[in-house]
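FW: tagging you since you asked about this chain on Friday. Here's the raw sequence from the shared folder, copied in full. Didn't touch anything.
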Amino acid sequence: MKFKRFLILLYFFLFWICYFIVARIIFFLFNTPELAGISFSEILATFFYGFKLDISAASYITFFSIPVFIISAFFSSNKVLKISLNIFTGIMIAIVSLIIIGDAEVYKYWAFRLDNSPLKYLNTPELIIASTTTLRIVFLFFIYLIFCLVSYFLYSRLISGKIKNTQNEKFYSIFYLLIAGILFIPIRGGVGIAPINAGSVYHSNNMFLNHSAINVTWNFGNSFFAKDLDFDSFQYFEETQKDKFYSEAIHSEDTCINIFNNNKPKHIIFIVLESFTANAIGVLGGEKGLTPGIDKWSEKGILFNNFYASADRSDKGLVSIFSSAPIVLNYSLMKIPGKSRHLPGLISELSDNGYKSSFYYGGDINFANMQSYILQTGFQEIKSQNNLKMNCAESSKWGYHDECMLDLLYKDIINAKDTSVFALFTLSSHEPYDIPGKKIFPENDEMNKARNSYFYTDSCINIFLENLYNSPKWDESLIILVSDHGTRFPGNTELWDLPKFHTLMLWLGGSLKTEPFIYTQAADQTDISASLLAQLNIDHKKFIFSEDLFRKKTPSAFYSFNHGYGFIKGNEYFVYDINTNKPIIENYNIYNMPDYTKAYMQQVTEYYKKLNN
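HL: got it, structure written out here
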């Protein structure tokens, strides 16, 4: 059969439909643990519901191939069409296959389909690669190469190899423009007012099945070409009504807890723990035996056992900790200096009140625009892999291991004569978890590697605290241990669920006058600024989302994830999905809890919108 150009275009479109069906199978193969308890019919349903996004993605690619068909229509030789289409298809297969394999791999960590997030880290590509092992990279490249070659081979046999004896059709080239226009209908998902979106393929109470129905190529392209976050889409209420609900949401009866003795801390020490989820901390109800040091020290200070990270990435967690800025979905203020420079800075306030400040990080300080933010928030000195030359083994892909950096921090604290604030950001508990020394768990899977990394960092923290405790500096110090974000490990916590964001905060040091106690109310990272500054008699009004935990009986907590957000008040919570415009999980007796949650989100997005860029 001699293919005409119109038929070639049709078969080209159908090729991509089949390609995306295979891509969904690959996604399932990479994430087989997620399929536990899911029936075969439920798996098949993802292909049915996801078909509309498959069609949209195939239509996008076909649309961009239209110029090839228009130009080739002016030539009677089939070589122009064949060569041009071969080149275009080869490029598209190479790009799209990379997205598909990359997405299938990272989903087990991120629990959402790949969007443009990795593009924000392209200035430090070596650190993206550092998140996995060399062996795994080789394996993924092999899978990627096989997928590309097989896909192109099938295209060559089914389409390219049958392009024969095409005729000069320049008179009909206008019809290709008509086809391009028609393709906008499946691209938009129909002729309705609202275009197709990821939520349109959600069909199950199981979020993994909903995510599986998403065409990742469509999702990536949609996020890549999307404009800045549409803050106006979160305008749920008129201003007066929003203010009323927001005020009620954060309302609390007063209390009064003074935590410092007569001599306020001369040294304030923040240790921000990479990925330290409550799931790995025994004293917080997590797996026993992974953090014996933290479990022990929790009996010597103030343990916040209902504490939440504001988001799911380090660049967001640092902003929440040091600027008290809640997070909006996958929006990262750290990566937008034009906005982040207008945030308040906890360290700036401490510096203005006589504290010299230093930030320690064993990795590349340029990662995710960290250096820009760290300086903007008030740190006067940075010590990182970029300017340190230490004798300890630099075996981690991310940089100097925690034991090296904590040892450096300890020596600097001991030698400090000025009133000082120190902050150290650990890194050894970041994947690929390549920690030094003996492992207590057999590293036969990713979860055991994570367990070993928690145990290692905990042991480093324990040594640091023991040394400090036995030094004269202990009595004049406040140490705040706080996680940057939670993770899905150990276990397989859902992206949006409270345990994913449940993390550590522990205040220690000889400057505390109170007896050790457990703070049981819900709180989050944004509350650190007001809680600390108030105890130091420093004004904290500019930290508008920060609640003073020692002056409120029932503060609140707020967190955000890729496609939704959650609000917690006491033991009650409401978690909302913006794709479906429905709650994902909820447990509350307060009648207005959904309104409180939305009002809080609206308040945050209005704050973001007003930040000058």
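FW: The radius of gyration is 27 Å.
HL: agreed, and The chain has a mean pLDDT of 89.
FW: great, closing this out.
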